[in-house]
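Session log. Operator J.P. requested a structure for one protein chain; no other inputs attached. Running the standard single-chain path with token output.
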Amino acid sequence: MKKPILMLLAITCLMACSEESTNSYSPGAEENQVNYNLSRYSNDVSLFAGTWNHDKDFIMNSDNLIEEIEINSVVYNKNIEIIRDANNNIINTKEYSAGNLILENTVSYNSSGQIAQVTQEDFQSSQNFDYIFTYNGNQVIKSDSYSNYTTVYTFNDNNQLISAEEFVGDEAFKLEELEYDAQGNLISTTLSGDPLSIIAQETHFIYDSSINPLVKPFHIHDYYDIFINPPAEQLGVYIATYGSPNNWIEANGDHINYDIEVVFDSSNRIISRFGTISSADVSGLELEESFNYVD
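Structure written below.
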């Protein structure tokens, strides 16, 4: 299976098991006065004083939805084209490297508008397989056509992801539990059972009161990031950035240290978030996000 390299804190508004996302986009009074539409959003991560990098640029269309992703890193450079249907559901993504098509995902939906299957074609390895999604009440079960791995996603009554548990056969080996505040912001995520760590890892987030401009462009693309190409560590970190109604401005964890600064423009729109992230395993990881608005 081909997976993208993990980008710490490049992170979704989680699918509510329907066409709309968990925190659906609904402009309020402040938003009607200020334009929060983005033309481009960048998330750059570097390590070892810039000798290692993984940079992503998300380009938005006129509907303020992601239409292309540009990735540049020390490992590879590629472009991802996102194709949607008339309802703005993602139906196809194509990844190109040096102008050559290297990976294609085709998405099909059931009669309720939920993702039913994703067929992935890897043109470099000539390997094709399917992700299959089964819906049972407040749970979504993801399986695939090539292994005995399954993931069970559980949602609360507000259609927010509250847990994601991974299994090998019938044996559970990794669990993430998530908690939200009354505004819908993800405030904590706890990861346990990870074979890479024998200690549960917990991360907490603190938010401002300003509108998060990433909710609208990512609220359809999130199906992909959570269910198809999830970050290798905590899904909650992704949801905090791309799915919470407000902008996280502080974070702290049991085994990780965040030193982050956030900058706003005169209209109180976030324009950058940057700083360093360190743990016992990694030091000198630098994060820089930039938000470019239509006006």
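Operator note: Residues 29-293 form a domain with the Porin fold (CATH 2.40.160).
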